[in-house]
Amino acid sequence: MSRPATLAFACFSTCLLLLTLSIQKPGLPMQLDNVEATQFSMATSLLHDGDLVCDTGDLARLFSEFPFASGVRLSLTSDNEWSTTRYAEPLLYPLLAVPFVALLGANGPIVLNTLCFLLVVALAWKRLQRWNTDGAALLYGLGFFVFSSAFAYLFRMQPQMLIMAAVTVALSIVWGDDDTATGSRRRWVISGISLALALVHEPILALLALPLLLRLRRRPRDVAAWIAGCAITLVIIVTLSNGLAGHHGIGSANSSDALAVTTFTVDSPLEVPWLEAKSPIEPSPAPKRSFGNVVEDTGFLLWGRRSGLLPYFPLILPVLALFVTAARRSRAQWALLATVGALGAAQLFFEPVAQTHHVGQIGNPHAVGIYPIFLYLLTRVPQQVITVSYALGAIVLSTLLLTPFGAVVPHAPIQGHTRNPPFSWLPFEYPTLGEAPDYRLLEAHNLDHGDARPAHFWAPADQAKIVGDEFWLLGGESVEAWFESRVEIPSAVFTLRNLAPNNNISIDFAGAKTTRQFDDVPAAGITIQTQLDPRGPSRIRHDAQGAIYYYRLRLATRIGEKPRWRRNVAGSDYVGVALAFLGTREFLDQDFYVAEWLACSAPPTVETEEHFLAIARLRNSSQHSWPHLGAARVRLSYRWLNSAGEDTQEAGLRTELDAAVDPGEEISSWLEVRAPSKPGHYQLE
Q: Whose CA is closest to 149, among 305, 352, 8?
């Protein structure tokens, strides 16, 4: 190794270690993924309590390190109806992190990740030195891992860096410096141990044993040494895990007859939600998928906006190009490439994108462990390819690499980088909306297709806020939301409430488009109604209950306005438009408002403007059920008639219905009433 290259690597390593030590604590990251929260809590529990039982002490330590976090999710397990609760994640990573946590607190796992990352870069540098100059080998080995989502996991308290390091060590030992399987038997034992450490967290990586053992196929003693190292390591880890966590510890614990596993949400160290879960919580059944859904999921796996292999590991493209055009390609390299395909197919089969457990993370975390395999397809890397690779990585991943804790916006989502090109051009994994923590749900009713199950609107949490029946959408941006329904909708009627003068609002609902311009706007804003007839569903999926129809809604505003500027509303919301879904045109054309008032009981005398309660009995005399949910729901009200029988024109208060009222059904309901503002004799009607 040349002195300049060694000095460059030493400088980079020093800067990276000091950077991880300087991350502000307590605080960052603002939000924790369930894997992060669980793994860190496991490390602190081992350090302070010597066990893996989740208790209030663990929660207090977690929230003292991350006081800004809310909705923290913990993966827990129990074998006695939640009287004793243990952690459901594998033991290895938190066990290795214990000394780092003891010295550095929540920065400890980040330092452990950094050391693993530097080990991987060093092994890549060493691997590429055979065919390239020292500087070129270091430059490409460094860029290969920096320009990938693997680098973002360096700043997360998750085992991805450990998995990647273990896989790289296992491959480096078996392949060796000269691309032949040579070396002492002790090295094969270490290789087997390394792969065992990786598959503790990613059992699917057991497939990697096939190409590794293929390299040793003519040396049975070396094969036996490799298998022994791997097997003994797994036995030790399983024994420790069974004693401390009550499960085998290979991959996350799974529900069984004797073991309940679920994820609980905790908002403060004083909450212990699992004490109320006295029965095993059944996991959701795997959805049925059509052939078209499988093809679509394959596309998501390769180039999806949130989990695609190629956008989050863009240097795979030049690596594959070099491999295909290389003059010499060994059988072992083809075996490695086939293993990558088998690992992808296994993930697609066992964990389809529509039921993914890595929603809310950066890209596909399972791909981090697979990524080093591509390094061993490389030999000589031309200088032009190094330049192109760095340019490709910068173009694709700059917004991700510069914001490892999420974009600097309110309610920062960890996947906020997907709002920027080129990610925004890629297909969105819409089937994951139900599990995405960075999306808000607003129930949409009034479809009137004989289906009692409500539809849903999903919008990004940092761009949308639910206020009553409205979505307040961030101003000056383009917001992509999704409408999910069990039935097809021929039309959709919305209200658009604008507060900002000189605003332009454009809306695209599954191909139906309209644009509205607002110039002078009064203080209360302007509300308009618009109907959009979609060309058809944007996407269709199927599950055990039938078809699910998805309609993409894109809404862009030129500017926004803070409601408190104009209506004295507290808060810092910058609202481009307030959007509400009224229902389909067929629903709104129905005549609901036919009621027969049967009786009413109210005080005979009240003070002016006094609020009081009256009880009324009435019948739904229309031909349609009165909906009690949605922006266009039916509510009860009243009017006052003066002594001349004239309407006082004072708006009556609204009373919500407790449930839908069928045609001909009679109900009794309390009404909230406000007396007229002027004294006199009035009739309540």
A: 305
